[in-house]
Amino acid sequence: MLTSENRKRIAEAVSAAEAASAGEIVTIVTPQSDSYRDITLAWSATTAFLALALLELAPDFTLGLIERALGLWAHEWTPRAVLGIALTVAVLGFLAMLLLMAWRPLRLLLTPAPIKAARVHARALTCFRIGAEGRTTGRTGILIYLSLAEHRAEIIADEAIASKVTPEVWGDAMLALLGPLREGRVGEGMVAAIAKVGAVLAEHLPRAADDHNELPDRVIEV
Length: 222
Hints:
Helix 2 crosses helix 3 (59-70) and helix 2 (37-57) packs antiparallel against helix 4 (79-100). The mean pLDDT is 88. It is built from nine helices and four strands. Helix content is 59%, strand content 10%.
């Protein structure tokens, strides 16, 4: 996901940002926040249902297509045969969509944006609780979380920061991150976002003389 040069630049950017602030910045980059297997199953089931619906709404047309495909001529369809065709069509539709959805770009394209946003947020919260929340003396941890496949990011702050800064303040940092990301410049985007976050932290949580580094500066790839 990141080159060794990008990892070095991100770590240096975190160190520089923390030098002027009591905040502790944690950076996490992940290729994808969720597998979206439930979305795959939902689309596969929908495809099977639509295949059955076509057979129900246009039986003559559908059975005619099947007759031509199988080389049948004036075939007499019994109820049992129609039921067998219906089951076959549903299963084939389900399996075909299941196979297509194995291709990640299509799976992400067919996943509604609100679902992707919710999954990224949920994963970011989990990472924050594990890697930053309550892990500093003054609860000054802040997470910059980037999910590459979804092209989405989250900035989550611990109590001491959240009490002084509203979530809207991080808008500039998000723009600085997502702009280069759309062009494939992940490292540059992370460095720019860290600088923006660092400026906000320095303003609201200036560094004290006895501050020391409590969380690792390196980027975490999960």
